[in-house]
Amino acid sequence: MKTVGLIVEYNPFHNGHRLHLQRSLQTAGAEASIAVMSGPFTQRGEPALLSKRARTEMALAAGVDLVIELPVLYALQPAEWFAFGAVSLLDATGVADSICFGSESGEVAPLEELAARMQGGESPVMQAALKQALAEGLSFPAAYAKAASEQGGGGSQAASLLGNPNDTLGLHYVLALRRLASTMAPLAVRREQAGYHDAGLPAGGQIASATAVRAALARGTGGLDEAAPYLPAGSLRVLRREAEAGRILTAGWEALAQPLLAALITRAPEELALVPEVSEGLEHRIAAALPRLPVPGVEALLAAIKTKRYTRTRLQRLLAHALLNHGGPLFGRDSLAQGPQYIRVLGFSPKGRALLKTMKKTAKLPIVVRAADFDHPQLQLDIRASAVHASAFPSPQIKEMYADYYAPPIILGDSDSDEPPKGDLK
Fold this sequence. Notes:
Strands 1, 2, 3, 4, 5, 6, 7 and 8 form an eight-stranded mixed beta sheet that branches. β6 (343-348), α19 (350-362) and β7 (367-368) form a beta-alpha-beta unit. α6 (124-135) crosses α7 (140-151), α13 packs across α17 and α20 packs antiparallel against α21. The two termini are 20 Å apart. The protein has 426 residues and is α/β, with parallel strands linked by helices. Among the domains are: 121-161, no CATH class; 252-324, no CATH class. Helix content is 49%, strand content 9%. The longest helix is centred in the middle third of the chain and has 16 residues, at 165-180. GO terms for molecular function: ATP binding; ligase activity, forming carbon-nitrogen bonds; transferase activity; tRNA binding. This is tRNA(Met) cytidine acetate ligase.
């Protein structure tokens, strides 16, 4: 069964995601799809709006066949390691023939050409160029675009491509494929209508950015009604149920402000320096900002420590690492270069079940159906992150904090009740 791989967050799953899924299947000539999805925290360092189980249910209802989790170790990383972790998982399934991503350009060839010239983003020449661009005061994305453009021959096309967030991620997907010597083909579909950061719901349209949908949902029931035209029926059903149950994190980071601030205040600067993505004295900037905050909130803290050098995305990831007590050798480059060490199944359709049966023969990593049946440091990070995320819901429940450890995968069609579907792999 020809299968296309997708790298997603579905925060939440909206009509643009459904269009990407449909076009990916068409572009790849595929019969089935596998989505590698971030768990409770996204690559931008933000807590997800919904649990990964709710987002998995949305994806399956819209036609995704198999959802597997990108470990939080890789989900909360800059583009290089985020992409490497996700591509490694798709490659490890042994059943994905291609990977298809949305991009502003909708073209793969320029990214492949640039990747070939770069010869790996971690080369000494690339690092020197990146360091110089950062020293000029550019933000990290702008500095990376400048350095990669120069190393790739200085072409204006490279600089233009790397000014786009999804094209930049696409480059890292291509680099990861080369690094793994993977046989999966890279494919791209053009991102339609709503831009990555578009904050408003377009009048009369059916596609809005996830940013705009989340902003509408933060306004409560009325906002959910406003967002309804931009959501598939399955997503809307899940959102209404989760809202009623108090399991939507519309407050975002502010819902985690108290434990985060406690985690920061109780660390000395030398301890903050050990948190992933803290460098160049940033620990002292954080320590100095904390007692001067006008209000005890995350937005206030971000405003106090943000500079041209340190983007909001990087700072949010740093804060997530601090909240989750991340650090140590597991987060070093040598460890990250080993890739994810298991394939965590979050949910599947009937086609997904068939893929899993094939994967029993083709997979390069252990397939984890229930976390309680497998033990690995990477997986322990996932379980802790899910518990912390669930604790921030408006109506937190102990069973939700432990759900990631005991809950089986979601099986499409198992339940139409008001409770999340349950099931196991047999």
